[in-house]
Amino acid sequence: MARAVTTQRKALNTLAAWTVGLLIFFPILWTILTSFKTEATAIADPPVFLFFDWTTENYSAVMQRSDYAEFLWNSIVIAGGSTILGLIVAIPAAWSMAFVPSRRTKDILLWMLSTKMLPAVGVLYPIYLMFIKLGLLDTKIGLTLVLMLINLPIIVWMLYTYFREIPGEILEAARMDGASLRDEILYVLTPMAVPGIASTLLLNFILAWNEAFWTLNLTAAKAAPLTAFIASYSSPEGLFYAKLSAASTMAIAPILIMGWFSQKQLVRGLTFGAVK
Amino acid sequence: MSNSFRALMGACAIGALATAASAETITVATVNNGDMIRMQGLMDEFNAQYPDIEVEWVTLEENVLRQRVTQDVAAKGGQFDVMTIGTYEVPIWGAQGWLVSLNDLPAEWDADDILPAIRGGLTVDGELYAAPFYGESSMVMYRKDLMDAAGMEMPDAPTWDDIAKAAEAMTDKDNEIYGICLRGKAGWGENMAFLTAMSNSFGARWFDENWTPQFDSEAWATTINTYMDLMNNYGPPGASTNGFNENLSLFQQGKCGMWIDATVAASFVTNPNDSTVAEHVGFALAPDNGLGKRGNWLWAWSLGIPAGTDAEDAAKKFVAWATSKEYTQLVASKEGWANVPPGTRTSLYENEEYQKVPFAEMTLNSINEADPNQPTVDPVPYTGVQFVAIPEFAGIGTQVGQEFSAALAGQQSVEQALENAQAITTDEMEAAGY
Fold it and tell me: What kind of architecture, by CATH, is found in domain A67-232?
């Protein structure tokens, strides 16, 4: 039976949730605010919060200097491509691990996860040299492949966890009713796993969007995504914090908007299976 | 298929081939600083002169750029046709055969006009391996109003004693005014750039002629103790995390009496749009101790061409254009003399218009005071003023920088930091086979 929740407790919970939420969101809010300040106001001490002369000059400067649309397009292709490619590989893999496990399934899963424990820089040179040989440096296809491989363990693990929550008896029942493997996956498993697949897709898209190590190291002028766009505004000699903030805001805006509209699916997917 | 359609297709194919053959693309890797960004805005002028060369830019933060271009040139990735590299990389890369010699740039480019100190730092065995785009040294930037209020005057060529006295006189911690702001953030290009240059003026050196580390010398102890005294008594709080940008911010807000750092900062602190103390800034040479060397460094961001690029001719045309006297004139005509890339050509400092820029003379004098081939009082086996031009230095310099930064933060004593610096350097150099 659910516990009765008093109004006072509700208010306290709401307050706590808002406080934590604002605390987490504050750096992003500060970045957005700074992007509308002049460079002098951006470094003012004490810091100015809301009451300053708002200006959009940083956005004009950034738009004038960089081809934002090209960086954005590259980000969409690379993040989207690696996510879709990853799901195509991971769904059958997770299905087989969840429903027809072998003696070594657990070991394979752990081994896959262990690849995430290796510092990326450890394999930078081998991959860089392979990319030179294969002509993949500074190409969208090359980056898509690398990001797909990097995020694959997480995708497989997430999907495996979701699939495990689906009772095998339901699939068995479908089979007894004469469903083929294709029908079983398409009409029984997929509808039940949609929240899990959706949240995996979203999370992986966000991870690929924000990935900065490989995208900075394997690109130059043609395939550089928004991470490279932000990096081009960072400077150790010169205070360009307002412009850097404008570039950052422009880089995170698409993913922020996407996250806002899909938060229901994200939360549902991430808490899927938490309550039985 | 009709004849006219065939003819049209043929014309299109020829057109496409002609375009592909005539337009050559070069990729330029560069840092994000005002001068480089300005150049990107002037590409129309370059294209008017060279319509057959298309320039693509890759702008990155300094440390990221350094790692990217090193990786690319070492692995022969061929990602870049022109690279922006510093005075540290050029002699090492030139000796490795990674860069194209620029001795054959056209005569009108006028190599003899390049400031001798800068040119010396970019030349290996008589071959010029990079063309300087802008050069910098370091100098004292100070608040004339605070000095006046204290009844003091800053000499044009101060000693470290003068600096200590001025710092004491200007410090007013109750009003958040700190007599001196210096780099404390760890890194070979951060605090160690400053401390290595400072140590030169105290007669210290990284290595003796036999590559034996010298942190156990009296000269290094005096250098670091002087630095600690200045910072602990007159420096801002939390200085162990302050780099160029943090100190620039403090100075612009009127919180530093003095700041010894890159000459390029002069244009920032005198810009009334960003600096609250723009009209009160004076300049002086970096301090000395009467030993014949000053505590200033020498650096140039230069354009180099990686060996093996398939667009060498186009890259050379671009490099010659970007580092020419005409380019300086072009920037002056569009943005004013204060915005031309400084520190590379003698002719710029002979220009009467440029001499009117308040920090021009002190910048030139500072650059001329530095000698990358004889940086120290006692002889050394290396070149480089604020660095040692060997591949191992970046790693060693950063580790040693962490020791001094920790001492500044109060986490260890100066003696301990020097002892650790000596041990780290000895180990690394032995491992490297010196």
Answer: Orthogonal Bundle (1.10)
